[in-house]
Design brief:
The complex is a heterodimer of chains A (436) and B (173). By secondary structure, chain A is of the alpha/beta class. Chain A has three domains: 25-236, Rossmann fold (3-Layer(aba) Sandwich); 244-328, Roll (Ubiquitin-like (UB roll)), CATH 3.10.20; 333-417, Up-down Bundle (de novo design (two linked rop proteins)). Helix content of chain A is 42%, strand content 12%. Chain A has 17 helices and ten strands. Chain A is globular, with a radius of gyration of 22 Å. With 173 residues, chain B is an alpha+beta fold. Chain B folds into two domains: 3-71, Arc Repressor Mutant, subunit A, CATH 1.10.10; 85-169, Glutaredoxin (3-Layer(aba) Sandwich), CATH 3.40.30. Chain B has helices spanning 6-9, 14-26, 34-45, 50-60, 64-71, 93-97, 100-111, 156-169; strands spanning 85-90, 124-129, 141-143, 146-148. Chain B has a four-stranded mixed β-sheet, with helices on one face. In chain B, strand 3 and strand 4 form a beta hairpin. In chain B, helix 4 (50-60) crosses helix 5. Chain B is elongated and about 50 Å long. The N and C termini of chain B lie far apart (40 Å). Classes of the chains: A alpha/beta (436), B alpha+beta (173). Chains A and B meet through strand 3, strand 5, strand 10 and helix 13 of A and helix 3 and helix 6 of B.
Chain lengths: 436, 173
C-alpha cells in the first residue's frame, strides 16, 4: 500500500481527505463532499467558469494551461454532444500523485467531473485510468456506482432535471495515451496515436464533439476551488499559479512521498526540509524537477527556485507533472540519460518519423556511450538529433524525449567526455539495459 | 451483421459474456469497449488467442485484423500465454535509483528466467517494465495487478513464496 507522508509546510487542500476513508460515500459526504457540485448546479456555467478563472488553477498534467480558460473555449451551442474526459493515464516517470487521488478520494474525481460537465454543458464524462491501475479502477467503479445510487449521477442529478453520466475505464499500457488526442483515440477503441491540431478538442474532440480534457489532479482540485472560492484558492499559490500542487519526491531522497505544497515552494527546501535531504547524507548531483521529460537542473540552479510553471520555465526546465526526481553524487548521468531515453524509445508510438527514428538513434548512441565505445563527435550528434526532433511531431512526445537528453548533454558534457575511449564509468550499475 | 448468439457460442464465462453485453451499451460508440474488453478477456483466458480475437471482433462488428492492429499497440496485451503470476519489475528512473536492477537480477536468479521468460511449471513469468506509477514508493513491482512497493532484493524470496502458496491452493498451478 502506498505510504502517506506529511510535513508541517504542507497545505492540505486536495489531500485533506486522504487517509480518512473518503472512498466511502458516507464518509465523503460527512467531510463536505458533493456540496460544491450542488452549489454549481444552482449557480450555473458562467459563474463556475469565472470561479475557475479566478482560481488561477493551471493544468496539472504538465502543460499548465489555465483550466478556466480551457473550459471557456467550449462552444455554448453544439450540434454534437459535449464530453468531459478525465486523464488518469498517469505514466510520466516520477509521477504517482493521481494514484493516491484515486485511492483515497475517488469521489472528488467524480464531483470534479460533474462540475466540469455543468460548466461546459456536457451530459457525459469519462474517467480514464492507466491499465496498470486496475485496483484503482475498482475503487472508482464502486464510487461511481454509489454516486448513481444516491442520485448524484444519472437522469436528474441531485433532484434537478440535469442529466450526467460517468463511465470509467482503463487503458492497456501506453505512455502515449496520456497525450490528450491519443487519449481520445484510445477511448474510441483505436491505437493511441495523436491527432493533428487544430482543431482542438474543445471544438472537435471525442466522437467529434466538443471535449474538455483535464488531468485527474486538476479535476480533483475543482470541488475544492468551488468550496473555498476561486480567489481564496489563488491566494494560496504564487503569481499566476493558483493553489497547491501534489509534488512527488522520489529517487535519492531521505523521505520520498507525495507532498501537497503551495505553488512556488522553494525546490531546495522541498528536497532538504520536506524530503529530509539526500539519502545517506550524500551530496546532490542533479534534480529532474517535473517528471522524466523535464530538463535536469544542477544544485546551483535550485537555490532560489520557486516551483511554479513560470519560475521553473524561466530556469530552463518545466514544472511538468510535479514529479521531482533527486539524483545523488554517486549516480552515472550517462546511465540515467540512457534509461530516460530508453523509456521514450519504448513508448514512441511511431506515428511521426522524427520521434520514432530520433528516439531510436538517441538510445543507440547513448547505449554505445555508456558501454564506453562512444566517440567525441557523438556528443554533438546527440545534440543534433535531439534538436531536430523538437517541434517536428504531432504530439509532445518527441520533445519530451529530446528535451531531457539535451539537458543531460549540455549540463554534464564533462561526464560524457569521461566516458570516451573505453573508460568505464565508476558509478554504472548496469552496462546493458534489458528493455528494448 | 447477423446478431450473435452469445449465450451459446461464447468462449467466455457467462459472467464475462454478460459483462461484455453491458459494456458495449455504455458507450456512445460500441467500438469504445474494445480496449477494456481485450483486457478482461486476457484476464480470463490468459492471452489474446485467435478465438478471443475472433469473438471480440464479432461482438463489436470489427474485422479480426482491426482488433489485432489495436491490440498490438498496447504493452499489457499479449498474444502468447504468460505465467499464472506475471511479475513486472519497474526499472524506470525513480525505481532504478533505489535498486530496481538489483531487484530484477534477484528475480532472474530465483526464477531462472530472464525478461519475458516463463518458469517451466508455468507459475511465474518475469518482465522488466516501464514506470508503473509508484515512483514515491520505489522500487516497486506488480504481480498481475497487485502492487508491491518499497522493496529490496531480499524481499524477493518472500514474495515468490506468497504466490507459490496461492498457486498451490489453486490446484498446483
Amino acid at each position: 500500500m502506498p505510504r502517506l507522508v506529511s510535513h508541517p509546510d504542507e497545505v492540505k487542500i486536495v489531500t485533506r481527505r486522504f487517509g480518512q476513508g473518503a472512498a466511502n460515500i458516507e464518509k465523503y459526504l460527512e467531510l463536505g463532499g458533493y456540496e460544491a457540485a450542488k452549489k454549481c448546479l444552482t449557480q450555473g456555467p458562467d459563474w463556475i467558469i469565472n470561479e475557475m478563472k479566478a482560481s488561477n488553477l493551471r493544468g496539472r498534467g504538465g502543460a499548465g494551461f489555465p483550466t478556466g480558460l480551457k473550459w471557456s473555449f467550449v462552444p455554448k451551442q453544439s450540434a454534437k454532444p459535449k464530453y468531459v474526459l478525465v486523464n488518469g493515464d498517469e505514466s510520466e516517470p516520477g509521477t504517482c500523485k493521481d494514484h493516491l487521488i484515486f485511492l483515497h478520494d475517488p469521489h472528488a474525481v467524480i464531483e470534479g467531473t460533474i462540475i466540469a460537465g455543468l460548466a461546459i454543458g456536457a451530459k457525459m464524462g469519462f474517467i480514464y485510468l492507466r491499465g496498470e491501475y486496475r485496483y484503482l479502477l475498482e475503487i472508482m467503479e464502486k464510487a461511481v456506482a454509489d454516486a448513481y445510487s444516491k442520485g448524484f449521477l444519472g437522469k436528474g442529478i441531485f433532484g434537478s432535471d440535469t442529466e450526467f453520466e460517468v463511465v470509467t475505464q482503463t487503458g492497456a499500457g501506453a505512455y502515449e495515451v496520456g497525450e490528450e488526442s491519443a487519449l481520445m483515440e484510445s477511448l474510441e477503441g483505436k491505437r493511441g496515436v495523436p491527432r493533428i491540431k487544430p482543431p482542438f478538442p474543445a471544438v472537435v474532440g471525442l466522437y467529434g464533439g466538443p471535449t474538455v480534457i483535464n488531468n485527474a489532479e486538476t479535476i480533483a482540485t475543482v470541488p475544492h476551488v468551488i468550496a473555498m472560492g476561486g480567489a481564496a484558492y489563488a491566494a494560496v499559490g504564487s503569481e499566476r499559479n493558483g493553489g497547491t500542487r501534489l509534488f512527488g519526491l522520489s529517487g535519492h531522497v531521505e523521505r520520498p512521498g507525495v507532498y501537497e505544497l503551495p505553488m512556488g515552494y522553494n525546490l531546495k527546501k522541498m528536497i532538504y526540509e520536506v524530503g529530509g535531504g539526500v539519502r545517506g547524507g550524500r551530496k546532490l548531483k542533479a534534480v529532474v524537477p517535473g517528471g522524466s521529460s523535464t530538463p535536469v537542473l544542477l544544485p546551483e540552479e535550485i537555490e532560489n527556485l520557486g516551483m511554479d510553471f513560470d519560475q521553473v520555465g524561466k530556469a530552463g526546465s518545466m514544472l511538468g507533472s510535479g514529479g521531482v526526481v533527486v539524483i545523488d553524487d554517486q549516480t552515472c548521468i550517462v546511465e540515467f540519460a540512457l534509461r530516460t531515453i530508453s523509456f521514450y524509445q519504448h513508448e514512441s508510438c511511431g506515428w511521426c518519423i522524427p520521434c520514432r527514428e530520433g528516439t531510436d538513434w538517441l538510445k543507440k548512441s547513448l547505449t554505445r556511450f555508456h558501454a564506453g565505445f562512444g566517440e567525441a563527435k557523438d556528443i554533438d550528434n546527440i545534440r543534433y538529433l535531439a534538436e531536430n526532433m523538437m517541434g517536428r511531431t504531432f504530439c509532445p512526445l518527441g520533445d519530451a524525449a529530446a528535451m531531457p537528453t539535451l539537458g543531460f548533454v549540455k549540463k554534464f558534457r564533462k561526464e560524457f567526455e569521461d566516458h570516451l575511449n573505453g573508460k568505464p564509468c565508476p558509478f554504472a550499475k548496469h552496462v546493458e539495459l534489458a528493455v528494448v | 451483421m447477423t446478431p450473435r448468439e452469445s449465450e451459446t457460442m461464447s468462449i467466455f464465462s457467462p459472467a464475462l459474456a454478460a459483462r461484455f453485453d453491458a459494456l458495449v451499451e455504455k458507450y456512445p460508440v460500441k467500438r469504445s469497449a474494445l480496449i477494456p474488453m481485450m483486457l478482461y478477456a486476457q484476464d480470463e483466458i490468459g492471452y489474446l488467442s485467435d478465438a478471443v480475437i475472433a469473438e471480440i471482433a464479432d461482438r463489436l462488428g470489427l474485422t479480426e485484423l482491426d482488433v489485432r492492429n489495436v491490440a498490438s499497440y498496447y504493452s499489457m496485451l499479449r498474444f502468447k500465454p504468460a505465467g499464472r503470476f506475471n511479475i513486472q519489475v519497474c526499472t524506470n528512473i525513480s525505481c532504478m535509483l533505489r535498486g530496481a536492477y538489483d531487484l530484477f537480477d534477484r528475480f532472474q536468479e530465483e526464477l531462472g528466467v530472464g525478461h519475458k521468460g516463463i518458469t517451466p511449471d508455468g507459475v511465474f513469468s518475469l518482465e522488466e517494465v516501464e514506470c508503473i506509477g509508484a515512483c514515491c514508493w520505489a522500487p516497486a513491482i506488480q504481480v498481475n495487478y497487485d502492487f508491491h512497493d518499497e522493496l529490496a532484493a531480499d524481499s524477493v524470496p518472500g514474495i515468490l513464496q506468497q504466490y507459490r502458496e496461492r498457486a498451490a491452493a489453486n490446484g498446483g498451478r
